[in-house]
Specification:
Layout: E1 2-10, H1 14-32, E2 35-40, H2 45-51, H3 57-65, E3 68-73, H4 89-98, E4 103-109, H5 122-125, E5 129-135, E6 143-151, E7 154-160, H6 165-180, E8 185-190, H7 196-209, E9 216-221, H8 222-231, E10 238-241, H9 243-257, E11 264-268, E12 274-278, H10 295-308, H11 312-327, E13 330-331, H12 333-336, E14 344-345, H13 348-361
Parallel strand pairs: 1-2, 1-3, 3-12, 5-10, 8-9, 8-10, 13-14
Antiparallel strand pairs: 4-5, 4-11, 6-7, 11-12
Helix pairs in contact: 1-10, 1-13, 6-7, 8-9, 10-11, 11-13
The structure holds nicotinamide-adenine-dinucleotide.
Length: 366
């Protein structure tokens, strides 16, 4: 089979980590004979520099025509002071909103070899395995009015948190369906003691839960959840939450895995088209140094094969390769420090090569 993949490397470490993801997809092509038709396009700051628009029309068109999209990261200090509609991050909102990719899936899993890379105690984070399902096209990031205005000589700013019943229903179904293939528990996170959107959220999630009698549903306030994630993360199976809460909680949860560089994500809509990206940003502090951890991007490629191309076996092989390479103690800089399991410090490129080696040979020899 042949599949069309739009590749948007973006800014900072984006191109470095995306190159490793592409290397891995090409090794899957070589081993299994699948055909990935890869086409590159501009996004984020580099697109502002070259086209005056963080999401040029031709980039959006390519994404629309493709089976799946792989994105690196966008943004950086060079573009920080532009007006908000011209900032690199607008491209992400444009892609998510424009392609109706309303469900963001972020797995939080501990690797045994990385148990000492996290600042949290090993006994707290051992065997953690949960998924955050974040609503991605509603809430504060999209609600209108969103503006700044002046009244009586003083500036005011407003962002609007809006959710419709339908938006909550469809994301709740994603969470319950995923929980059915896991440990059958959904924790819905809101702030229903204060926010009207959260009260509607809670009612609708309760209603949808009746369609999934095999799933245990619990509700948790977001402030408590942020504490529980570092206090007792093993209690979670699937966390379901709205856009802003999910953004913040998933960065917090990244600490469990040892590095933000480890975490992949998938953004999905009604069909099989999806946007796949590591959860980290463009990391300007380490860009261009060949030290960034590419595993979040490589694991995003596994997600791409699983959710958009339905190539489960190949997705699993990539995940197995990542686990194997880490078990052997090959770590990028972010994982290496203070980790007794570390055997060799490797660069971004070397990490990509090791994953490819495992995929192609089923082993890694020094
Ligand atoms: P960041 O995720 O880029 O970096 C936070 C810290 O994590 C930095 O110390 C960085 O060096 C480290 N880090 C991130 N990814 C890493 C990797 N793969 N390997 C090793 N270390 C890694 O977040 P930030 O510093 O808040 O933001 C930098 C820029 O990225 C900003 O312009 C921000 O708007 C943008 N951003 C983009 C996205 C995206 O494209 N999806 C997401 C978040 C932030």
């Amino acid at each position: 089979m042949s599949y069309k993949i739009a590749v948007l490397p973006g800014d900072g470490i984006g191109p470095e980590v995306v190159n490793q993801g592409i290397k891995v997809l090409k090794s899957i092509e070589r081993v299994f004979g699948d055909k990935f038709e890869i086409e590159y396009a501009l996004v984020g700051g580099i697109a502002i520099d070259e086209k005056g628009n963080p999401l040029p029309d031709e980039t959006f068109r390519l994404c629309k025509e493709s089976d799946a999209i792989l994105l690196g990261a966008v943004g950086g200090p060079k573009w920080d002071n532009l007006p908000s509609q011209l900032r690199p991050e607008q491209a992400l909102l444009g892609l998510r909103g424009g392609l109706s990719l309303y469900a963001n899936i972020r797995p939080i899993k501990t690797y045994n070899s990385l148990i000492f890379s996290s600042p949290l105690k090993p006994e707290i984070i051992k065997d953690v395995d949960f998924i955050i399902i974040r609503e991605l096209t509603g809430g504060l990031y999209f609600g209108k009015p969103k503006e700044r205005y002046k009244k009586n000589g003083e500036y005011f700013a407003v962002d609007s948190m809006i959710y419709s019943e339908k938006e909550i229903e469809r994301i709740a179904r994603v969470a319950f369906s995923i929980a059915q293939k896991r440990r059958k528990k959904v924790t819905s996170v809101d702030k229903a003691n204060i926010l009207e959107t959260s009260r509607l959220w809670r009612e609708v999630v309760e209603k949808i839960s009746k369609e999934y009698p095999d799933i245990l549903l619990e509700h948790m306030y977001v402030d408590n959840c942020s504490m529980q994630i570092v206090r007792n993360p093993r209690q979670f199976d699937v966390i379901l939450t709205e856009n802003t809460f999910g953004d913040i909680l998933s960065d917090e949860a990244a600490v469990i895995t040892g590095s933000i560089g480890m975490l992949p994500s998938a953004s999905l809509g009604e069909g099989t088209k999806g946007l796949y990206e590591p959860i980290h940003g463009s990391a300007p502090d380490i860009a261009g140094k060949n030290v960034a951890n590419p595993l979040g991007t490589i694991l995003s490629c596994a997600f791409l094969l699983r959710y958009s191309l339905n190539l489960e076996e190949k997705a699993k092989l990539i995940e197995e390769a990542v686990e194997k390479v880490l078990d052997l103690g090959y770590f990028t800089q972010d994982l290496y420090v203070n980790n007794p399991n570390a055997k060799r410090l490797v660069s971004t490129e070397e990490m990509g090569d090791l994953i490819v080696k495992y995929i192609e040979r089923g082993e890694i020899n020094d």
